[in-house]
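Q: I'm writing a short explainer about Germin-like protein for a general audience and would like to include a description of its predicted shape. Could you first generate the structure from this sequence?
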Amino acid sequence: MMRIIFLLSLFFALSNASVQDFCVANLKRAETPAGYPCIRPIHVKPSDFVFSGLTPGNTTNIINAAVTPGFVAQYPALNGLGLSTARLDLAPKGVIPMHTHPGASEVLYVLDGSITAGFVSSANAVYVQTLKPGQVMIFPQGLLHFQINAGKSSAAAFVTFNSANPVKKLKGVLGGTG
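A: Of course. Here's the predicted structure. Afterward I'll give you a sentence or two in plain language.
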């Protein structure tokens, strides 16, 4: 019984949310395994909770796509909340290649254009759908997935992750090394 209590107390001790309402990151200090140290609440402003950085990205590259992150480094109010966001911009023929986020599920919300998106389950079943503005698709944690502009004009989407750092992994996928 004491082991269970100890493990539960350790779990709650590692979560900022269990000790305080929020923890706006102090990016001037070093990041730790638990995230960044917090700015003292008396120094936090309402504007710290607002982020204006999800602007259109530059799609003039080999994949005709851009990912504009809204992670803790860009949006310090996300620190300790286990969330992050990004904007996807896809020019015509744009693609976010097959990749995975080992520690995060992803929700895709289409803003403009037409995006064909899909994922491969652990049983090798393929789920593909062409999405229009206002539609949402989920990519379960750790599964290979992709997004392709299915239209003749630009497309845009917002994505949200249930992880503060949903690092994209391409290693071993389509010749990727990261």
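A: For your explainer, you could say: Residues 98 and 146 are 5 Å apart (CA to CA).
Q: Perfect, that's easy to follow.
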